[in-house]
What does this fold into?
Amino acid sequence: MATRISLFGLVFFLGMVSTAQADIGPPRVREDIVNIRLHTAKDYSDFLVYVCRSDRAPEQITIAPDKPIVLEGTKGTYLWLAAVPKDIVEKLGGEEKLLKSLAGKRIDGVLYSKSLAGSRPTKGPGAVVVDNYEITGIEKKVVSLVYLSEADAKKKFGQGSGSGSKQVFWPTSPNDGNDDSQPPFWSWDKLRLLISAVTLSVALAFGGLWLARRRQRATIAAAPTGG
It folds into this structure.
């Protein structure tokens, strides 16, 4: 009987700990959503410019001097620009076919930028921030992007991002996608549950030992004596 009670206490304890661990889970990384504001001082009307994303189909955007455009970021994604010279659009099958082709492998004759992160880890609760970039050139197979601090953006184009944060590049799409509203790793309710499980298991274990010793004493007292 005592052995069974002790075993029950141990099983109960392990079950409560496992439940608490499953409920707590590993700590998650909070992220800021990063919107990209593009500036340019040059005329790129000879190109069709597209924003390509890791999570959706490409879309055409308009790049014009002194008219910044904001590209919205999303969690766990990245984006890049593709510039297509207008004189090769028909050669590539027209705008409709080109739009579908841009979602696949890189196309000869199309100029690409480096990839920009649509989100990044943060120690805060998570927010939407804006990073500024200037398109400084579309040539030699590359769309050149230069990061601008908030102060530089205001000085050069009369407006900043409001974030002034350092740029982050991801060569591939990260796989986080976590919720920014998750609770802290440890909470008082979870600690209280764990303490209760430990206390109850210890009480059951000592109770089992006490019953075992009591039974042993009763057996010894009842045993016949010689003589």
